[in-house]
Amino acid sequence: MVAFGKKLKQRQNDEWQRYYINYKLMKKRVKQYAHQIEIGAQDRRHVLKDFSRMLDNQIEKIVLFLLEEQGRLASRIAKLGERHNALLEQPEISQISELRESYREVGQDLLKLLFFVEINAIGLRKILKKFDKRFGYRFTDYYVRTRANHPYSQLQQVFKHVGLGAVVGALSRNLHELQDRQGSYLSIYDETALPLQDPVVDAINAAVDRLTYSTNFLTFLAQHAFIMQEDLPTPTGEQPDDGRYHFMSLLLNLVNTFLYMVNTYIIVPTADDYSMSLGAAATVCGVVIGAMAVAQVFSSVYFSAWSNRSYFKPLVFSSIVLFMGNLMYAMAYDVRSIWVLLIGRLFCGLGSARAVNRRYISDCVPLKIRMQASAGFVSASALGMACGPALAGLLQTNFKIYKLTFNQDTLPGWVMAIAWLVYLVWLWISFREPAREYDDIPTAETSNAAAETVETNGLEEGLKQPLLITSEDKQGEDEDGDQEFDGSEEAAEESRQPVTSIGAAYRLLTPSVKVQLLIYFMLKYVMEILLSESSVVTTYYFGWSTSSVAIFLACLGLTVLPVNILVGSYISNMFEDRQILLASEILVCLGILLSFHIIIPYTVVQYVCSGLILFVFAEVLEGVNLSLLSRVMSSRLSRGTYNGGLLSTEAGTLARVIADATITLAGFLGESRLLNITLLPSLVICIGSIVATCCTYNSLY
């Protein structure tokens, strides 16, 4: 277990060592504050003032050095620019190559500076989080609010790297002009999409993207996948590929994601009709749809644990269970049993392998294409959400083969059963299990042996040590090791060791993380209410057919990618994520309010417009929410069985279960009251999430 402070020290540039944030000193000071408050030696106001002053000094040290280095880089680029201008008059190939290499050397130094800023920004976030957690304050809110919004803010220099953009731009432009453009006179300013094939510039752009959290369409889309990265970057960039990546295996994971989402939503337009044909009420469709989510609550855990050992076997098991579940769903009509229908949907939920799909991308896909793979995961989900209802709308037929009925109610089950059978064959033929490093997984015997060895060595070393530590030894330990604090609190809080239980994972959740999980719960609840009751509501108010409901739901699903393009390419570059988060919550709340049926007759325009507002901004909210969640969540939740992805999945799945149960329970009061009764909890949860967001707003950065 390597503490953050030790990793920070290992990855520092030795020449700049005294300009980094003194994380160990600040961590030690936090411990001293806690002791002083405990014995009554200091009051809280003095602690806050003293810690604020220390933070200001640390940030000022970082910023002044940053400005100094920026000036040096700018001066070097200016001198190279003079040589560049001279070469334009008398070009020589050898000198052009030499000049290009000189620019690349500046680029390498710029990379070091970007890494310097990033590692200090992470250190600041961590020490603020440590202070809040240790004292139970909302000090981060106060500090960020008072510093970041001040006209003389130095905090913005660290988090927004003000001024570095000009250096990056100058370097990129000059390297671009020194390329062999084959007669082209275009500048990088003439065509923004003009590619610059230079590894140094690519590395710089990647570092800038990490530092600013800038989000183009691809990165914004990938945020929905919630695949957490390591919190502390490495200056070397891309890690070597260990050969675990296999394109066909990745494709099979994405197809699994697509088919599962189709399987989830293909029954929505006909679930109420199917329930009534088996003698149940139309609102039992909530239970039918929600049964899949109920089973997914449990399947997510065992699939997440199973993926620690294998990817192939869970996917095979998932395909078999989904095949059986869809078969039972289709045959429930002929056996005239609502219970067979529900058991079939439960089996489908037990086959949810989305945790495996996420885990494969996180563990086996190389870093350089992981963003594309994550975006592919989300795109497959969105496409499946749209194709499910659309496919249901096409299955409007009725015939029998022997004693088996094929109609709009049963065909979704038959079609998906065949699809999963074909997928299973493809999976068996084409999937390649990545190599596993089982040596790193301790067995009971090796763990016991290791424990005995440590105990024996510790006893022998203890006999060699003096009984009392001298003042010089103690001082050296405080200055260099801080072993007592590093070994206990730091190892427990910031270790990279994954958590081993839900309880341990919950203890790592800060107020900011809990609020983001609440928001995720809210948006999934709201979307499930809208989608699951759409068939019942539209049939009652407007007399829509199954095809009309299918078209409406398919159109909603098709908005996902265009909206993400708009937000990811434009809006996210104009506003902060937390601003988009709060605005999206308010607009979701507006969509809920517009959906209520109060006095005036309920119209198609009102329902469609309110549903569109609600769904679109819930989708926007999901991407921003998961992006912020990945920043504020502990790095210990980035891997292992009980990871951040599992927690968010469980929150979303639980929301769907409760939403579907709400629809069924509200149905007992009559279809005329169904809409308003189901929207009321949505409104309450949404308002609660807005209030919670406002309370933690300044900690979302």
From TrEMBL:
The protein, known as: SPX domain-containing protein
GO annotations of cellular component type: plant-type vacuole membrane
Transmembrane segments: 250-268, 280-303, 315-332, 338-356, 377-399, 411-429, 517-543, 549-568, 580-599, 605-629
Pfam entry (one): MFS_1
Family, as annotated: Belongs to the major facilitator superfamily.
Entry-linked InterPro entries: MFS, MFS_Domain-Containing_Protein, MFS_trans_sf, SPX_dom, SPXM_SPX_plant
Membrane-related topology note: Multi-pass membrane protein
Record key words, sorted: Membrane, Transmembrane, Transmembrane helix
Annotated GO biological process: transmembrane phosphate ion transport from cytosol to vacuole
SPX domain: residues covered: 2-145
